[in-house]
Amino acid sequence: MQAAIPGWQQFWPTSQFAAEGYQNIRELIRRDRNHASLLFWEPNLNETHGAGFAQWQRTAHEIAHEEFPGDQCFTFDDGYPPKVGWDWDVRGMWREYGDWNFGGNESTSRHVRGEGEAAMLQQAWNFIWTFNHLNANFAKPQSVFYGSATWVMFDYNRGYYHKPCTCGMMDLYRLPKYVYFFYQSQRAVEQGGAMVFIANGWTPRASPAKVVVFSNGDEVELLLNGKVVARQRPDAGPDTEYAPKKKVNLATVGTDTEKSGGNPFDGGNCKHLDHPSFTFAAVPFSAGELKAVAYRAGKPVAEHSVRTPGKPARLQLAFDTAGRNLVADGADAIFVRASILDQHGTIVPEARDITFECPGPGTLLGPNPAPAEAGFASLPLRAGETPGPITITVRAPGLESAHATITAVPSGR
Question: What is the pLDDT of residue 248?
Fold first, then answer.
């Protein structure tokens, strides 16, 4: 969790403005300094420059250390690149990467799940390529940076631009995109367990096809309808420029608006990743099941399968509770998800309007019928103030309907 003071791209060199900002910093730190969930404070004005601002930052730095004394408070620049005007020794954190530097508000990282496999792979490649090259720079002895963070976890609707920001690792309804599974693969097996994920829908295509797999295993075996296609170790190719004729200069991230797709999953640009991707080239297409099995020290540790979808046949309904109860307090809410399945239970990644029905006591929020994207339609369900069962039914023309029930528990439990 990060806590920040108000302010964005505006600095007024007046005593009243400065004093208000300083007081915000004190109140922010005093409120949260004993909360274990807090990782960062931002005692600064976001993306702000201007005459007199460097001195304001210096004072803000001193106030932060007054309010949180000791050796556990460190100040860093939120650079890209580090701001001119810092007059003391401070290391930097690359506070956002993977989106803006690939086209600004029209970034090639901005894709919704419904755009399909190629779009999801392009977004994932932008983050992976940058993450690898940032790690390479951070490892240099002369580097002034010690870490980095992505922008952003979830898609969201932003106010200043006419399009929503869709560079999230999960969509607006908290469904994961391919890049989400890449980051999951970077966890150590000892910390998060073994994993493998096929970044492919295995829908009909011209043969052969490139298949990308994310895993924290040391080998992955790919099988098509039970037959081994290949078994290989992670990608280990060289680092290259993002685009053949255009070098993305990491010192100018945020100003480079070139919209090139680079060369996604070329087998390289991975030497500075804990667990590089596995790129299988020229996999022949045949409808059915594509399975990936991850190995560590020669033993299978995880597997994941995708299946070619058939014609849509029925709906399925589920509640995304995030592992907690729905509380009947009139405000608590969860997501209700409808998925489009074929006769075998495989997700059919198509767009279709789905009608949600909730006779009570809960309330469905958002547009209804809800548009399905990549085979899923989601709506928030807000509980009423009366505990008990809430039944949801979903319908769509030509598909078998579905219903499911969740019980809202009394407030205070």
Answer: 52
